[in-house]
């Protein structure tokens, strides 16, 4: 009797735990139908849309696999917001269907999701993370009718149905750097980040160049915590910068919220954001954010599809193609000359008179 | 909870009675309608073979189990014990065979455990210590209250157990096989202490299967067999034979000792050293020779290197120095399997841990070693038909009581498991056999059988190393006895070359010369 | 390199270390109680997450930090009761039930966060509280007496836990039950009650550890906020040899090295960031190996108690 009881209790607990963890990423979103995993019950994905004779135009179906939450105020949110914006522009769910799988930090899980979406007849499958590259390369070969996009990277593997996309994060970094250099009083700026790779690195490289262009004497100190999720350490890193005398901070990570928390607590420290508009986190502290805007890219891909093109191209978000934007925080009173310098930098980069090394 | 610090101790109980006790476990009737009583001022022996229901009966008296039927009376008043806490409160104490002590705590902390402090919630260890010293003085129970249990010898630990019971003002104290781990001298000390405590008006239940001890200390004796009470009688005029008859229900043959025909030296150990589990040297240079057709018994209090010696000989433990020769070939660093092929067999001390696999059937356990032998296989497959025939044969031949040969071995009694292991090992016709505690926890009937088999094996020319903590067993089976103390052989005597007392002194580390003088 | 040893930097490192050590101390002390009684609770991280979320959510909606702490205590108690029911009453394998509890906590806190909050929002948590008089002492005051309430409580917990385990009758029972439950049982100690108490206390502390993270250290919640911190807390219990002072040393060592590597990076000491990040873990492993020989775990750790009647 002991054994069987024990097993039933354990299994109930496990099922409960599994259920809850499986449900968690699938909370209701208002704009789009949501699936926890690309399971069979996906409402809009029953049959190839072409068999729907009555519908005037079958909806364009997009699936996106993201490493963090759609609400991360950073990388994943930038893509999700762009998709929702395009959907609204195209006329809502009847024109475009979005399904997403978030928090897919385990690559094998992500690969399974990519394959599932592809086999369900989605028009476009976006693998939103540089760690998904090899999965995309493998799966895309099996679904030549489906368009795949992945980033941030530039490699399409020579496949006709794979797009790669990347962001010239150094450009916005440069603009932020110019502003930061003009705003720092103590001539000291702190940078926090998780790992020294990808657009986290290029953003900061650009930022450092921007600062140097104003005043080479200003020191920019960097800390890397080695973890995308350790908020406690990220917060402490920001506190360390502040204790060491920094009065302007920036950072480039999904868990950057902790740094903003530390800045907020101190009250006198300014913040520059990237990837997404981070002003809502601390209205009075965020000066500006570099925002990734993927809408143009998504629209281009949809247009290409209509012409029968499924990939083989690399997109780069830049200030010049409006893929990158600087969102100035309306809640922060930015001195006019700083704003002017920022605008000048933006124009300079767009026109090519300022070259920012990635 | 006993008021441990009040100067006026409450009245001590003077009698406990168990009436018509029935205790069932799933599939087993452990006690059937048992009556038992014990009074202050006496030692009442509770005698019976392993599995006769002695411990079960006493565990009910101590509140660890609840009887299915029957009642318990303390000083004539009926009581119900839901836990040991209730029994302690009622004035009953129990000293378990495996001491219920916490090695990492001090003597005082062990005594204070579970007591209500005079300064709740703070501990009052100073008060407890003072009272321990009082008790220690009053009863001649020498202990250091501030010592940690792990620092104490077995005898000292037993004294702590007794103090724990006395501290809780136990009127009746149950002793479960209290002498199993003691040297003969320590047994004498224990008996002296018990007499002193009895004189103060306490009573004891003495669980044992060692008849001479029962005869030496007890006033009354009750015998349990198969869960039922065979009878209770005063020790006056009772002989050893009477007790045996009550225990097993028939007369036992005492083993006639036949002289052995000694052959050439089979096993030769020179300067063997080994490191024990606690990272200290537990074998400190052992020299031994065992001849064909001879049983060499190792006597000693457990923990003096016997286990490590057996392990080194089987290849389960690496020796750090020294050499072992079997029939003139060095086997010191030979792996276990090779040693078995060379003709060595092993009856391990922990039969359920090292000798058998609990969940496996009788048959599977029997063929654990030899399943790959040519006669048991068809190519890479096992020959199950032949194996089950062979199992049935062995079960019959060795008188193993098992419902079927498919029964998991864990459902067999200790004696039957041991017979099966013996069958497995002896069927290999070994040149050299190590028998470690071959009859521990085995009933008298099976013990008798195992002893006979070992002697037969000896007569057929096998050299046997017998390691036993039961000095009686060692003395009755061995042709020579080597006494071990702290990893060394203190001395080797012929089977009739020394008295129990002399061997006892050697077991306590006294040199052979000194011991023989005494 | 010299800069590293300037007074300001040293003060900075120690202040950071004390802050970082806070959740570890809560969680590890709690786990030490649980393990001392013989129950390994690997669900610490899950309990922390749930506690962190509950405290965060109550603060977010009511602004009342005391209510938040109360909420964390209650949810911790519930998680503790669940763990003790499974591992003590049902005698389930402790490692597996702990991992189950962790997954449950991770999933539950993520779900609740999604449904009730949605995206990252910061809260007004515990502010730094200068201790009058003491905080003005040079250096010492700056380091020790300008912290938030949970930090003070964590450090006060060390002597209290030591006193409780070593000097009270309940502490003796906990230690005894973890070493030899049969012996404690034979002296009338209710083994299961002691284990329920210890596991529940441990879970409440874990929950408070989570609350200290979300309401004092980072002032926000996000999915998997603890990032495995609870597992390090379990390791620190071994490191500390089940003793509060040992745990304090372990937690401080770990957090000091972490603070040290952050400062090294801030000061631009030229070593690869990957190496810096590795330092605390590396050091923990080295220290664990160094102290492991003198460690004596509770003998009944991971062993359910059964009187053997059934």
Total DSSP helices of chain A: 10
Q: Give the strand content of chain B.
A: 25-35%
Let me know the average pLDDT of chain B: 87
CATH architectural designation of the largest domain in chain A: 3-Layer(aba) Sandwich
Mean pLDDT of chain A: 83
Shape descriptor of chain A reads globular
Assign the CATH architecture of the largest domain in chain B. 3-Layer(aba) Sandwich
Structural class of chain A: alpha/beta
Overall number of domains of chain A? 2
> Element order, helices and strands of chain A?
HEHEHEHEEHEHEHEHEEHEEH
Task: Please give the most extensive interface between any two protein chains, plus how many residues each contributes.
Answer: A-C, 59 and 57 residues
Globally, the shape of chain B reads: globular
**Uncertain runs of chain A:** 22-56
Kindly provide the radius of gyration of chain A, computed on alpha-carbon positions and rounded to a whole number of angstroms: 22 Å
Describe the main β-sheet of chain B briefly. Answer: 6 strands, mixed
Count of discrete domains of chain B = 2
Note the quaternary state here.
Answer: heterotrimer
At the first level of CATH, the class of the largest domain in chain B is: Alpha Beta
Helix count, DSSP H or I runs of 4 or more residues of chain B: 18
Describe the 3D structure:
The complex is a heterotrimer of chains A (358), B (518) and C (310). Chain A has 358 residues and is of the alpha/beta class. Chain A has 2 domains: 60-167 and 294-317, Rossmann fold; 169-291 and 324-351, 3-Layer(aba) Sandwich (Rossmann fold), CATH 3.40.50.2300. In chain A, 40% of the residues lie in helices and 18% in strands. Chain A is built from 10 helices and 12 strands. Chain A has a 6-stranded parallel sheet, sandwiched between helices. Chain A has a 6-stranded mixed sheet with strand order 7-6-8-9-10-12, sandwiched between helices. In chain A, strand 8 (248-251), helix 8 and strand 9 (270-275) form a beta-alpha-beta unit. In chain A, helix 3 (107-119) packs parallel to helix 4, helix 5 (169-183) packs across helix 6 and helix 5 runs antiparallel to helix 10 (336-351). Chain A is globular. Chain B folds into 2 domains: 6-247, 3-Layer(aba) Sandwich (Rossmann fold), CATH 3.40.50; 265-517, P-loop containing nucleotide triphosphate hydrolases (Rossmann fold, 3-Layer(aba) Sandwich), CATH 3.40.50. Helices cover 33% and strands 25% of the residues of chain B. Chain B has a 6-stranded mixed sheet, sandwiched between helices. In chain B, helix 14 (414-426) packs parallel to helix 15. Chain B is globular and about 75 Å long. The relative contact order of chain B is 0.10. Residues 1-8 of chain B have low confidence and may be disordered. Chain C is built from 12 helices and 2 strands, in the order ααααβαβααααααα. Helices cover 71% and strands 2% of the residues of chain C. In chain C, helix 10 packs across helix 11. The longest helix of chain C has 30 residues, at 7-36. With 310 residues, chain C is an all-alpha fold. Chain C has helices at residues 7-36, 44-62, 65-89, 94-117, 140-144, 149-167, 169-179, 181-186, 191-217, 229-239, 244-266, 273-291, and strands spanning 128-130, 146-148. Chain C has a two-stranded antiparallel ribbon with strand order 1-2. Chains in contact: A-C, B-C. The interface between A and C is large, with 59 and 57 residues.
């Amino acid at each position: 009797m002991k054994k069987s009881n024990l097993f039933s209790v354990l299994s109930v607990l496990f099922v409960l735990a599994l259920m809850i963890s499986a449900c968690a990423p699938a909370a209701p979103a208002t704009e789009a139908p949501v699936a926890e995993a690309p399971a069979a019950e996906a409402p809009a994905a029953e049959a190839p849309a072409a068999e729907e004779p009555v519908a005037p135009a079958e909806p364009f179906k997009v699936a996106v696999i993201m490493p963090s939450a759609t609400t991360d105020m950073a990388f994943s949110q930038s893509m999700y917001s762009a998709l929702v914006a395009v959907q609204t522009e195209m006329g809502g769910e009847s024109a475009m269907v979005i399904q997403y799988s978030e928090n897919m930090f385990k690559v094998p899980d992500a690969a399974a999701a990519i394959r599932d979406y592809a086999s369900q007849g989605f028009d476009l499958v976006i693998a939103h993370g540089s760690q998904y590259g090899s999965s995309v390369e493998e799966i895309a070969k099996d679904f030549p009718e489906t368009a795949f996009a992945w980033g941030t990277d530039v490699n399409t593997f020579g496949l006709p149905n794979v797009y790669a996309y990347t962001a010239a994060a150094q450009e916005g970094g440069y603009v932020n750097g110019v502003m930061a250099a003009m705003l720092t009083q103590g001539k000291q700026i702190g940078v926090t980040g998780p790992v020294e790779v990808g657009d986290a690195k290029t953003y900061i490289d650009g930022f450092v160049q921007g600062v140097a262009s104003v005043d080479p004497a200003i020191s920019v100190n960097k800390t890397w915590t080695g973890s995308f999720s350790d908020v406690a350490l990220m917060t402490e890193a920001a506190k360390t910068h502040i204790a060491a005398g920094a009065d302007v901070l920036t950072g480039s990570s999904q868990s950057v919220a902790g740094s903003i928390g530390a800045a907020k607590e101190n009250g006198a420290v300014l913040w520059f954001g990237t990837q997404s508009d981070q002003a809502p986190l601390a209205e009075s502290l965020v000066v500006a954010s570099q925002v990734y805007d993927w809408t143009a890219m998504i629209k281009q891909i949809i247009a290409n599809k209509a012409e029968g093109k499924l990939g083989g191209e690399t997109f780069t978000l830049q200030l010049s193609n409006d893929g990158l934007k600087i969102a100035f925080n309306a809640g922060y009173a930015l001195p006019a000359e700083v704003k002017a310098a920022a605008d000048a930098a933006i124009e300079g980069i767009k026109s090519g008179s300022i070259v920012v090394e990635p | 909870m006993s008021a441990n610090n009040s100067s006026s101790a409450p009245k001590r109980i003077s009698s406990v009675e168990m009436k018509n006790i029935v205790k069932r476990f799933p599939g087993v009737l452990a006690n059937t309608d048992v009556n038992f009583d014990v009074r202050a001022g006496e030692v009442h022996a509770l005698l019976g073979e392993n599995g006769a229901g002695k411990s079960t009966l006493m565990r009910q008296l101590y509140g660890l189990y609840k009887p299915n039927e029957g009642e318990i009376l303390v000083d004539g008043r009926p009581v119900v014990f839901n836990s040991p806490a209730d029994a302690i409160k009622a004035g009953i104490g129990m000293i378990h065979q495996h001491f219920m002590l916490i090695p990492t705590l001090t003597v005082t902390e062990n005594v204070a455990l579970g007591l209500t402090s005079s300064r709740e919630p703070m501990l009052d260890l100073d008060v407890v210590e003072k009272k321990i010293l009082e008790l220690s003085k009053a009863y001649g129970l020498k202990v250091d209250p501030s010592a940690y249990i792990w620092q104490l010898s077995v005898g000292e630990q037993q004294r702590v157990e007794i103090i724990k019971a006395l501290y809780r003002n136990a009127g009746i104290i149950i002793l479960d096989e209290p002498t199993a781990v003691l040297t003969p001298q320590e047994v004498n000390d224990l008996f002296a202490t018990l007499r002193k405590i009895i004189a103060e008006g306490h009573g004891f239940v003495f669980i044992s299967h060692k008849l001479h001890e029962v005869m030496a200390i007890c006033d009354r004796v009750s015998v349990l067999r198969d869960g039922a009470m065979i009878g209770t009688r005063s020790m006056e005029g009772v002989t050893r034979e009477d007790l045996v008859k009550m225990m097993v229900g028939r007369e036992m043959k005492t083993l006639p000792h036949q002289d052995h025909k000694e052959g050439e030296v089979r096993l030769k150990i020179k300067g063997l050293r080994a490191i024990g589990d606690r990272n200290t040297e537990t074998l400190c240079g052992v020299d031994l020779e065992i001849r064909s057709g001879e049983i060499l018994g190792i006597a000693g209090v457990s923990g003096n290197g016997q286990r490590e010696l057996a392990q080194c000989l089987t290849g389960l433990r690496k020796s750090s120095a020294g050499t072992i020769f079997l029939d003139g070939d060095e086997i010191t660093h030979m792996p276990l399997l090779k040693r078995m092929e060379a003709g060595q067999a092993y009856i391990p001390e922990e039969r359920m841990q090292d000798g058998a696999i609990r969940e496996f059937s009788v048959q599977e356990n029997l063929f654990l070693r030899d399943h790959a032998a040519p006669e048991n296989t068809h190519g890479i497959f096992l020959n199950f038909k032949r194996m089950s025939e062979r199992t049935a044969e062995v079960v019959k031949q060795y008188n193993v009581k098992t419902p079927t040969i498919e029964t998991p071995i864990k459902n067999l009694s200790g004696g039957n498991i041991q017979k099966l292991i013996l069958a497995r090992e002896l069927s290999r016709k070994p040149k050299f056999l190590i028998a470690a505690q071959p009859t521990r926890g085995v009933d008298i009937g099976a013990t008798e059988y195992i002893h006979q088999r070992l002697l037969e094996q000896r007569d057929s020319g096998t050299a046997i190393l017998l390691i036993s903590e039961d000095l009686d067993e060692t003395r009755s089976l061995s042709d020579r006895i080597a006494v071990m103390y702290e990893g060394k052989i203190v001395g080797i005597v012929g089977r009739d070359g020394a008295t129990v007392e002399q061997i006892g002194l050697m077991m306590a580390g006294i040199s052979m010369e000194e011991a023989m003088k005494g | 390199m010299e800069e590293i040893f300037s007074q300001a930097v040293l003060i900075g490192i120690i202040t950071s270390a004390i802050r970082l050590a806070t959740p570890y101390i809560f969680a590890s002390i709690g786990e030490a109680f649980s393990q001392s009684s013989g129950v390994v609770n690997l669900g610490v991280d899950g309990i922390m997450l749930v506690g962190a979320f509950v405290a965060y959510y109550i603060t977010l909606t009511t602004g009342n930090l005391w209510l938040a702490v109360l909420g964390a205590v209650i949810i911790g108690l519930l998680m503790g009761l669940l763990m003790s029911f499974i591992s003590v009453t049902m005698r389930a394998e402790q490692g597996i039930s702990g991992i189950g509890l962790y997954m449950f906590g991770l999933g539950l806190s993520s779900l609740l966060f999604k449904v009730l909050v949605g995206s990252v929002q910061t809260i007004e948590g515990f502010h730094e509280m200068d201790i009058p008089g003491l905080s003005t002492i040079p250096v010492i005051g700056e380091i020790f007496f300008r912290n938030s309430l949970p930090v003070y409580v964590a450090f006060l917990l060390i002597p209290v836990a030591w006193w409780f385990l070593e000097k009270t009758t309940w502490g003796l029972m906990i230690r005894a039950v973890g070493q030899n439950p049969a012996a404690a049982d034979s002296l009338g100690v209710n083994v299961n009650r002691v284990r329920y108490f210890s596991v529940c206390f441990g879970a409440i502390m874990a929950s408070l550890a989570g609350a200290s993270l979300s309401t004092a250290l980072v002032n926000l919640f996000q999915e998997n906020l603890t990032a495995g911190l609870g597992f390090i807390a379990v390791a620190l219990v071994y490191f500390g040899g089940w003793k509060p002072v040992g745990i304090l040393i372990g937690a401080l060592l770990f957090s000091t090295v972490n603070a040290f590597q952050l400062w090294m990076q801030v000061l631009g000491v030229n070593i690869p960031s990957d190496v810096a990040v590795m330092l605390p873990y590396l050091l923990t492993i080295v220290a664990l190996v160094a102290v492991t020989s003198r460690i004596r775990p509770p003998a009944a750790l991971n062993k359910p108690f059964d009187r053997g009647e059934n």
